[in-house]
Amino acid sequence: MRSPVTHPTTPVTGRPEPGRAHHGGRLLTGLGAIALVGGLLAGCSSGERPQTVATGDVSDAVAAADFSLDRTTITADPDASPDAAQLTIGTRGDGRWVDVDGDAAVLGVSMFSLATGQSLGQATELPAVTASFLRDLNSPVYTAVADAMGGLRVGDVFTLVVPDVPGGTGASSSDSTDSSSTTGTVVVIGRVDDAFPARSHGTEQAPVAGFPQVVRDTTGRPGLVLPTDYDSDDAPESAVLVRGDGDVTPAVGDTVYLQMTFFDTKATKRSAKVVQSTWETGQLTSIDLTDDAGDDILSVIGRAITAAPIGSQIIVHVPEDYQTQMGDLIVLDTLGVAPADDTDQGDDTQSDDQNDGTADPDGSVQQDGDTGAGE
């Protein structure tokens, strides 16, 4: 008898916050997620697409031609009151058009109050997120970014104006007895650093003895079909399930963007067999390939990743010492690669005159001493 492994209906861990990327291929404690890393990749495409969010007078007036992590102010317009989101492309890129239904995008974003012109927090790099991930944040700002993605391409610098955002004035709700005074128009200045399919793509490979059958749903998300007597102890180190049709094969020194699902085939309950999965959140993970010569889990994953082109799906047998934390099998899709020298995107430091507020993942703006406007 063979029983399919299904996925839990809720993520094992909380939703990752979009934020500044961290370098280094380290494993997090607990469930063993790989550290997130931002990066620049090149894409290519041709032709033109209509914008999915219309241009308007307000977005044209505040449009920026460049993106900088250090920008602290824009030109204020306290009298402007757009009825809907507006989008202006300040600089048009020449890379891949974002497929809003199937791509992950690497974005840089900074947010400002249109009323005051002041920054609403530190500029943020969102490493490899899907539109569905942004919409699931239940934020008017990130929902508008997701809506705009379908008309963007790699290299674009865009200005997005979003009305009626809690905390959009930059004022703390404690500054006024009228909480509606903290709702205002937010200006997002962003850059599309990369976009690529968020699932494997290539040629299906023959099954490898020792590994179970891997099945996929219509989105590409993997599951396992396990015989009742399956035991992963005899599985080889790794095997390619889908050989990617990408032009690049990752090498030591690269940063690779991944979909990853950790399976525990020894769990007694079927619902517990998925330990953790990036498919649950829509936010990809990534790893720096620093060494592939050891017996540790990063070296094992590194050897598997460097054996096949981008677009591949690979199954990895987790060394026994790591199975308590992350299960015994990993299915990963290699989706994008950035040479190590390209992962630095500029000076991440803020000027002293930038305010102390931070943009929350839900799109509201939190000031010192405040729990966050609009909560």
Secondary structure elements and their pairing?
Layout: E1 2-4, H1 57-62, E2 86-91, E3 103-113, E4 124-129, H2 131-136, H3 140-149, E5 157-166, E6 183-197, E7 202-204, E8 213-216, E9 222-227, E10 238-244, E11 254-263, E12 274-277, E13 285-288, H4 297-305, E14 313-317, H5 323-326, E15 329-339, E16 358-359, E17 365-366
Antiparallel strand pairs: 1-9, 2-5, 3-4, 3-6, 5-6, 7-10, 8-9, 10-14, 11-12, 11-13, 11-15, 14-15, 16-17
Give structural attributes:
single chain; 375 residues; mainly beta; Chitinase A, domain 3; 7-stranded antiparallel beta sheet; 5-stranded antiparallel beta sheet; disordered N terminus
What would you note in describing this structure?
There is one protein chain. The chain has helices spanning 57-62, 131-136, 140-149, 297-305, 323-326; strands spanning 2-4, 86-91, 103-113, 124-129, 157-166, 183-197, 202-204, 213-216, 222-227, 238-244, 254-263, 274-277, 285-288, 313-317, 329-339, 358-359, 365-366. The protein is mainly beta and 375 residues long. The protein folds into 2 domains: 2-37 and 199-341, Chitinase A, domain 3; 57-196, Roll (Chitinase A, domain 3), CATH 3.10.50.40. Strands 7, 10, 11, 12, 13, 14 and 15 form a 7-stranded antiparallel β-sheet that branches. The protein has a 5-stranded antiparallel β-sheet with strand order 2-5-6-3-4. The chain has a 3-stranded antiparallel β-sheet with strand order 1-9-8, with no helix packed on it. β16 and β17 form a beta hairpin. It is elongated, with a radius of gyration of 22 Å.
